[in-house]
């Protein structure tokens, strides 16, 4: 798994590639926690190059969302495809977070 | 070879070889240098002795020469009568102990016209002075008379053996006498003094160079005058000897000597087998030559004996050095050998082996100390590893027990109600680890209705297993209250979401089969949608309106859905361990393959379906490690119960 965070005037785009499983999910969680500690509150997770996500990955997303909640932060997702989109749909996570086709669309949604 | 030998051997060999080399170089230099010094010293000594002897001989000769010269002067300037002449001559011999004898010989009628012969001779005999008859004729034909007469010069005669009166080897200094009359100087006779060469022999014999070095005296013509070997005296000249021996070098040496030269030269062999050196110097007044001869080998004698001692001391020193080096090497290699043995024992696993104590603070001592430390560390480390292994074993056995417990809380036997002939059910579970987060459950709600549950806790292992136990208990409790599936999920979600600090969640399908008519009412909380395997053929993915997984969000909404099974139809529920099983190429098994597998299983029993799907998944994985728990629950409806009459 590789994480590339790009700061934008509206928020931070976090592009994740590879697989997000029990081994790599804590890395994602740690990275996002650092960004949040740095004052970031708006995140767009770009999953367009994420091939697979396991329940451990979902757990990390959930943990991150819970940290953001009291800070009135936003965790958005875009570019979900294939198995990742299926997992989001099946687990109901798709209804829990805003999903967008692209980072631009996601950032646009917050006006 | 050297590299196979011990350190002690190498040290001894290298040290001693090095020392021996240094010793040889120093020895060689010292030998050459000291030999040169001794040679120079000996030469100087020989030269000194020779010149000293020459001086002493000269002194004697000069004192002897003065006597006849004095008499001649008196006779030429004073008019003495016979008696006065005899008295003068006698006193000359008596007062000069160097003089053996003296003669005053006049030419015939040289004294006066009346006396034909006047040749008085005084000589020493038996401690006194004897005289011959002055009128008896003298040997005027001999050199002592003829040479000064002819040359008008005083001079020493060749040594000769006096058979007349002396009976000894003598040399005579002759001074010519002249008479001056009417302005004319004419030869009148000769006055002489004899010297016994025995006196000179003593001086020459006192020359001692080295052990057997000696001096010789040669006459003007090369006759051997003195020599330690008496048999050679007056027996001939050095040239006779050179001819006899056919030795041109000896002849050359003789020529240089009689010519009055001086210097060093290798002395041609006289004493057999010995190379000798000679220093020669002239005795100016007589034209004789003195030579000092010393054998070369004696030159080296002191040097050789000195260096024999040096060699002995050197060898003894090297031997001592060997012993010292051996002791030092042993003191180093001894502990090293002990340590090597100890290291071997430690390598073989014996950590209780006694290590040699550190006796010093040198490198070996430090090594020993480090070795002690290493052993202690190693022992501690091994103890830790052993403890960790024991701990691990304990945990493994605990996990094994936990697995047994987890398997026991999963139902294995169908309940008596609803009646068995109305349905078939098969559930299988294969945890990826000892314990897992997947579970299934089924239990009767009443005579007709069977509740079934399949669930997947996020994550794996012990945390998932604990969460699973809680979830399963809550689900069963809620379902037994007779709540509808959506209400069951909502209730359990409330419980799990509250204070869910670990952020774990569980996806669940909770369904209720009415075995009387095949109706299935179910609710889905984030789980993979079930499939229906129709007995008539064909498999359908049940589109569900998925709620959120339990434990994620309080107040999440859940909805009930329903479907109807015809006789022989099966509902197939599974966890993502099936569709997300990976092959070595890291491809997922996927929904497509699952659906295709089920297509061919129409009308089969749940047991056959479950084992066939499992086999498909195993074949697909082709030995790749199972990463997630795999659970399958299949329920087949046998057929509607005819309405009771």
Write a structural description.
- Chain A is 43% helix and 31% strand.
- In chain A, strands 1-2-3-4-5 form a five-stranded mixed sheet.
- Chain A has 111 residues and is α/β, with parallel strands linked by helices.
- Chain B folds into two domains: 303 residues, Beta-Lactamase, CATH 3.30.450.20; 228 residues, PPM-type phosphatase domain (Phosphatase 2c, domain 1).
- The mean pLDDT of chain B is 88.
- Classes of the chains: A alpha/beta (111), B alpha+beta (645).
- Chains A and B meet through helix 2, helix 3 and helix 4 of A and loops of B.
| CATH architect. name of the largest domain in chain B | 2-Layer Sandwich
Domains counted in the coordinates of chain B: how many?
2
Helix content of chain B: 40-55%
Shape of chain A: globular
Broad shape of chain B: rod-shaped
In a few lines, what is going on in this structure?
The complex is a heterodimer of chains A (111) and B (645). Chain A is α/β, with parallel strands linked by helices.
What descriptive keywords fit this protein?
heterodimer, A: 111 residues, alpha/beta, Transcription Regulator spoIIAA, 5 helices, B: 645 residues, alpha+beta, Beta-Lactamase, Phosphatase 2c, domain 1, 2 domains, seven-stranded antiparallel β-sheet, 13 helices
Helix and strand arrangement:
The complex is a heterodimer of chains A (111) and B (645).
Chain A: E1 2-7, E2 12-20, H1 25-37, E3 42-53, H2 55-68, E4 74-78, H3 82-91, H4 93-96, E5 99-100, H5 103-109
Parallel strand pairs in A: 2-3, 3-4, 4-5
Antiparallel strand pairs in A: 1-2
Chain B: H1 7-77, H2 82-95, E1 99-106, E2 121-125, E3 128-131, H3 143-151, E4 155-156, E5 160-161, E6 169-181, E7 184-196, H4 197-205, E8 214-218, E9 224-226, H5 238-245, H6 248-258, E10 263-267, E11 276-283, E12 288-295, H7 296-347, H8 363-409, E13 423-430, E14 438-444, E15 449-457, H9 461-480, H10 485-497, E16 506-514, E17 519-525, E18 531-533, E19 539-541, E20 560-564, E21 570-574, H11 576-579, H12 590-599, H13 606-621, E22 630-637
Antiparallel strand pairs in B: 1-2, 1-7, 2-3, 4-6, 5-6, 6-7, 8-9, 8-12, 10-11, 11-12, 13-22, 14-15, 15-16, 16-17, 17-20, 18-19, 18-21, 21-22
